[in-house]
Every structure is written in C-alpha cells, then in structure tokens.
Amino acid sequence: MTVVSQWRYKNIQDDESELHRLTGLKGKEFETLHGFFKTELTDYFAQYTLEGTPRDRKPFSRNNTIFTATEDALLFVLTYLNGRVRQEQLATLFGIDQPKVSKYLKFLRTLLMHVITTHPGALSRYKKQRILNNKKNDKSRISFRHFPENRP
Length: 152
Hints:
Largest sheet: none
Radius of gyration: 15 Å
Helix content: 40-55%
Mean pLDDT: 83
Protein name: Transposase Helix-turn-helix domain-containing protein
Order of helices and strands: HHHHHHH
Structural class: mainly alpha
Pfam families: HTH_Tnp_4 (PF13613)
InterPro entries: Transposase_HTH_dom (IPR027805)
C-alpha cells in the first residue's frame, strides 16, 4: 500500500526545512511562484486538455485526480527538478505509475518554464537560473506552443 499523504503540500507547508529540501525554495518563494503557476495552469486547462488538444467542454475535477491542489502539482515538478527524487520514487510517493509521472513531468516542466520565463517576479534571478539550467530540462523538447502568447 502506498502512503502519499506526506507528499502533499498541505502536510509540509509549515515545515520550512522540508519544503526547502524537496524544492530548493523557501515557503515565501514557493507561494509567490505558486500564484503565477496556478493562474497559468488554470488558464491552460480552460482551453486545452493535458495532451494539448483544444477543449470541447468545461474542465472539471475528477475524484481520482492525482493533484487535488495546484500546490501539489508544483511540489511534484519542483521536487523532481531539484534532483532529490527519481521518477520511480515520485510514482510511489504520489500513488501513480511511472509512465504517468513522465507524462505529467513533461507537461508541468513546460508550464513551469513558461511561468518563470514570462513572469519576472515569479522567482529571484538566481533561483530562476538554477531551474532553467537544470540538466533535467532538455530545452530542445520543451515547447510553449499552447501557451497564450505563442498561439497563432
């Protein structure tokens, strides 16, 4: 049986050292970044599906959703990019299989890169560069084609 509750943001938000260890960000930095991340994520899903196809109907939250809060999605991607957890470990900790981890990471990395490159106030220059220069961000595979200012 997989125990995932410890990896939900609501359970670690008050533990500054644990949050910093997992994400490389302090609580205030995480909250600031989350504001921009949540807006972009909500805007994206209002128009597109996870696969990038135009949405035909209004998005809704399912009971079996992996990320019950947008903070969890940000925690998920930042933990991976911080380099402390492998995809297989994320799969176990979030109660999903590894192919889904890969699928969500591809999308969430792209979204995060979009957020930190288009919103100067999202992170300090140092933290932004640390994330952008992370070896797990193969820029040749990251496409912003579905984000608002890059649409035809």
